[in-house]
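Structure (tokenized):
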């Protein structure tokens, strides 16, 4: 089995941070025999080599592999290290598989660039994909290890066979398009519960309330985060409680600020919302 490191230099480039001639170093590695790196994006990618996502061929325990372990342990490096992959394929064939995944057909926008390799996106995909879609995503990758929002290792595994072409359904695209708002609320949730870790399905839980907030027109960041955190602290349909229903009515019809209206709630009122919402849930 061959081992690889997938690295995205968009926000931070730990691999070349101390390299004075970044492009030269990458080109030399790509042209080596055998090549040591595959630059994703293909011939159509007009970005300079140092700006492109890279698939490095590594050996467990070698200098680059060890360095990547250190990078992934830092907040800045965590989003750059997209994971450690295992596959029977050689570097270039595996790189071409990843290239194909990067171009997807969107139901409304046509061909789009899909950053599936971002650890936050990959983790969310693992929660929303069917087993067949997951197999298509991984394809020849037998093991993909990455670091999640809790700085904990997660692993996706597959038997490594090429399957049908990967594609997302319309509702899954909608879920992916919410990820920026989901990630914003995840950071708020994480700040509230630290140092306790978030649950593994945190992004799905947050998405439930993000969708609800969209329906009520709560688009401002602070309002969105507050609404989601209130939902997470109470019940799935806390919005139906009379106190909350009145707040949301005023937000929707009078343009009132959600934070201003809910800041006046006492602890006993929040406890009432939680308790009575739970009783409604139990009624079915």
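Design, position by position:
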């Amino acid at each position: 089995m061959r081992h690889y490191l997938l690295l995205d230099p968009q926000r931070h480039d730990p691999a070349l941070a101390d390299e004075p001639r970044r492009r030269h170093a990458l080109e030399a590695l790509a042209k080596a025999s055998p090549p040591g790196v595959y630059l994703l994006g293909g011939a159509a990618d007009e970005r300079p080599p140092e700006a492109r996502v890279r698939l490095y061929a590594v050996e467990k325990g070698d200098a680059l592999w060890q360095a990547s372990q250190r990078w992934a342990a830092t907040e800045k490096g965590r989003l750059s290290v997209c994971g450690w992959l295992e596959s029977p394929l050689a570097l270039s064939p595996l790189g071409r598989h990843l290239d194909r995944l990067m171009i997807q057909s969107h139901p409304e926008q046509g061909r789009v660039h899909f950053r599936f390799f971002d650890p936050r996106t990959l983790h969310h995909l693992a929660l929303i994909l069917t087993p067949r879609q997951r197999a298509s995503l991984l394809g020849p990758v037998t093991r993909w290890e990455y670091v999640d929002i809790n700085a904990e290792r997660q692993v996706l595994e597959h038997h490594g066979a090429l399957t049908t072409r990967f594609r997302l359904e319309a509702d899954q695209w909608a879920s992916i398009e919410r990820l920026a708002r989901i990630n914003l609320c995840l950071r708020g949730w994480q700040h509230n519960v630290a140092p306790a870790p978030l649950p593994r399905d945190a992004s799905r839980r947050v998405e439930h309330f993000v969708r609800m907030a969209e329906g009520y027109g709560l688009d401002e960041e602070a309002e969105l985060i507050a609404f989601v955190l209130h939902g997470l602290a109470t019940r799935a349909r806390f919005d139906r409680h009379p106190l909350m229903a009145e707040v949301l009515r005023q937000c929707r019809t009078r343009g009132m600020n959600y934070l201003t209206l809910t800041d006046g709630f006492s602890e006993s009122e929040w406890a009432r919302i939680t308790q009575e919402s739970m009783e409604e849930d139990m009624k079915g």
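Reviewer-requested clarification: The chain has a mean pLDDT of 92. Residues 267-283 form the longest helix (17 residues).
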